[in-house]
């Protein structure tokens, strides 16, 4: 089982009874639900865990499971390389943007990588704005609402700023 205990959501990847890759997600602040779900799974020998809330969850699980803590970006990179291989892409040099509660940007080249930068803007920003503007604080309730509006009514574009003059961007 692999767990990404993020700032907002805890995502779990595992092999189901048919040995197919399956996923579950929980709100990270609802650790009792996460633990209950894990306790109801049979045959868990080891849990690989990463993410900003990994230490908290690890402390709660260490008496029941063998825990292996992983560097979050390295775990993400292993997953990206797995998907690239499965999709038959032969790419060694690329920019990887990982959007979670915040956003991290890495330049990957061959077997190395460097962190190019990042921002606190990510899913956490969306959820914070949603709570402030609509009083909705559940991800599942926010996402369907995004399809109802039109960003053309809200977004300022480069064209709006330049007022019809050809912009340099």
TrEMBL record:
Record key words, sorted: ATP-binding, Coenzyme A biosynthesis, Kinase, Nucleotide-binding, Transferase
EC numbers: 2.7.1.33
One GO location term (cellular component): cytosol
Molecular function terms from GO: ATP binding; pantothenate kinase activity
BP-aspect Gene Ontology terms: coenzyme A biosynthetic process
Domain of life from the UniProt record: Bacteria
NCBIfam families according to UniProt: PRK13317.1
Protein name as catalogued: Type II pantothenate kinase
Species for this entry: Bacillus wiedmannii
Lineage of the species this protein comes from: Bacteria, Bacillati, Bacillota, Bacilli, Bacillales
């Amino acid at each position: 089982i692999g767990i990404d205990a993020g700032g907002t959501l805890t995502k779990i990847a595992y092999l189901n009874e048919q040995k197919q890759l399956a996923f579950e997600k929980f709100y990270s602040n609802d650790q009792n639900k996460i633990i209950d779900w894990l306790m109801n799974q049979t045959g868990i020998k080891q849990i690989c865990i990463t993410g900003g809330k990994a230490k908290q969850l690890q402390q709660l699980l260490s008496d029941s499971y063998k825990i292996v803590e992983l560097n979050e970006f390295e775990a993400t990179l292993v997953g990206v390389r797995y998907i690239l291989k499965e999709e038959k892409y032969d790419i060694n040099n690329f920019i990887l943007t990982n959007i979670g509660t915040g956003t991290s940007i890495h330049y990957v080249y061959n077997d190395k990588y460097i962190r190019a930068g990042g921002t606190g803007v990510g899913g956490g920003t969306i959820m914070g704005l949603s709570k402030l503007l609509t009083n909705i604080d559940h991800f599942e309730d926010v996402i369907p609402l995004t399809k109802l509006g039109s960003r053309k009514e809200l977004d300022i574009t480069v064209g709006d700023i330049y007022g019809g003059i050809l912009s340099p961007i």
